[in-house]
Task: structure prediction
Amino acid sequence: MVANGKGKMPPIVSLKYKRGELIIKEGDYGISIYKIVKGKVRIFNESGGGEIPLATLARGEIIGEMTFLNRGEEPRTASARAIEDSELEVWHPSTLKKEYEEMPPVIKYIVNQALQRLVRMNQLVTQFAAKRQQSMEKAKQREPGTAQRFYYRKELDQECIYRPVNSPKTVRLGGRVKDISLNGVGLEVRSKNALNFSHEAGDTFHVTMMLPTNKKLTFKAKIQSVKLDRTLGRILMGLQFEEMDGENRKTLGFFMRS
Amino acid sequence: MEIDQLVYAYIANEEEYPDKTVVIEEGSKGDWVYMVLEGQLRVKKKTAKGTVTVYTLKEGDIVGEMLLLEPGKGVRSASVIADGPVRLGVLDTAHLLRDYDTVSPQLKGLIRSLIQRLEETTDKVCDLAAEATG
Result:
């Protein structure tokens, strides 16, 4: 693309990245700008050995505009990794840089403010995520196995019916909800339920149950942990809510506060 | 600062509001770009778990940069509320857009991307903040 008809644009270079490959590393210096032609790219911050996702970008979206607009004076504020096989167009920044310098000052002023705000917002996302990770860690130390459900839990013993998300609608399995929090449930089922359907971490179920207040609760939840009790022939699972509509969330909220 | 003077030249009108006035309401339509001349305003956003204050605007700060994203289609992405009496400068939108038109398509692409990401990240912060307090 020729920006304004005058001058030569350096040829556009295309790069291919395999799924999982790193494109930009946080902390590095570099002012290249990338446009995604094909595939998907995750933008993330590194924190305590983990990755905190900031955004997932797809075709047509641009990576590296922050560092460029910061005139390359600051290192990269986030990393980028291909999460699908991707193809990226690399824009050479020198031409753009000249254009940027010649931009009307009022536009520059507005762009600069947006940039400062975005830097701040990215910091906040990372801070919140780190805080959440910390409280998870603490919960893990207190009660291993239920780390995913670190919120206050209520013990109960309620019947429920459930079915794996990929099973036909007619499937009805039975179980007992042994505890519940704003984050998930503890579900106990007979081992034979697992003969026909997988009951492993990562599997997701549709669940319908009655709360002790006689209110119905429907949700989708994912298995976080599985414990086998061979002597009783039962499986105990920790499930985390995946989907719950506003009405059900309200019902649960009221119950948790009662 | 020099830049402030340059931006000042774009101010078509000045408006004053008493404390707690909702200057901009989230979800309403509007394309005006404001610059804070005096006082402070709070930027608030609605989330599933209540309203969150995203940041505070001070002198020299701009509100309404979304204009550069989709001129003419502006739906306000947050509410802006006076925190004490405020004086705002309303920028000349036509002048601003004329200037924006001189920017090359590639550079416009960068700016659009930046503003879009600012919107998305702000939404994310609001959700996380609401979750942390709620």
Observations:
- The two ends of chain A are 63 Å apart (CA to CA).
- The first helix of chain A runs from residue 65 to 69.
- The interface with chain B takes residues 1, 3-4, 33, 35, 54-55, 61-62, 65-66, 68-69, 91, 96, 99-100, 103-111, 113-115, 117-118, 120-122, 124-125, 128-129, 131-132, 246 of chain A (CB under 8 Å).
